[in-house]
Amino acid sequence: MKEKIISKASELFLKLGFKSVTMDDIAGEMCISKKTIYKYFCNKEVLIEESTSMVHKQVHQIIDTIVAKNYNAIYENFEIREMFRDMFKNNTDTSAIYQLKKHYPEIYQNVMSHEIEQCSHYFRENIEKGIRENLYRKDLNIDIYVKFYYTLIFHINETTMSEKEAQKIELEALEYHTRAMATSEGILELEKQLKKITT
């Protein structure tokens, strides 16, 4: 039952927002009493912590699945972006990360410390892969580019209220990041991926 509550709460939080969803809403959606929820979670904050942790795991499992398909480095980044777009397409117009930062800053800080660590790992592996594939320049300072990119991405999510707007800016950031690193071969692959989005 605990897992079912976390799963339903995660779905509602992402769809309607962390602030607006109440324990009553979750109980009503699941056709259980609020008392049942409080049996497992002493308050809403604890439930939000568990829910964000579950979403975090799901996101990284999907990223691992995409990475395992062994696409080239640029294609891989676009596939990961697509996955995020699909995952959050039924959301409220307000970005989930923006809401979390505004209403539950402590939980947000906790989530972000894990995210930065995980994302830095993915970004680094992607850059190293792109260099091997001759899609990214061999003279890159990998540490700096990893830092640039996660600073850019997290700043967008933290400061952009609209989910739709955040996704639009993230695509621009991905193009910017890729162009900054790409070889002439990498630019051709980037143009191919961008064309797929616009057509």
Q: How would you characterize the overall build of this protein?
A:
There is one protein chain. The protein is mostly helical and 199 residues long. It has one domain (53-198): Tetracycline Repressor, domain 2 (Orthogonal Bundle). It is 79% helix and 0% strand. It has ten helices and no strands. Helix 1 (2-16) packs across helix 4 (44-68) and helix 5 packs antiparallel against helix 7 (105-132). The chain is elongated and about 60 Å long.
Mean pLDDT equals: 88
Question: How many strand units?
Answer: 0
Strand content: under 5%
Extract low-pLDDT stretches: none
Protein name: TetR/AcrR family transcriptional regulator
Domain HTH tetR-type: 1-59
GO molecular function, one term: DNA binding
Keywords: DNA-binding
Provide keyphrases for this structure.
single chain; 199 residues; mainly alpha; Tetracycline Repressor, domain 2; 79% helix; elongated; Homeodomain-like_sf; DNA binding
Topology:
Layout: H1 2-16, H2 23-30, H3 34-40, H4 44-68, H5 73-87, H6 96-103, H7 105-132, H8 142-159, H9 163-181, H10 184-198
Helix pairs in contact: 1-4, 4-5, 4-7, 5-7, 5-9, 6-7, 7-8, 8-9, 9-10
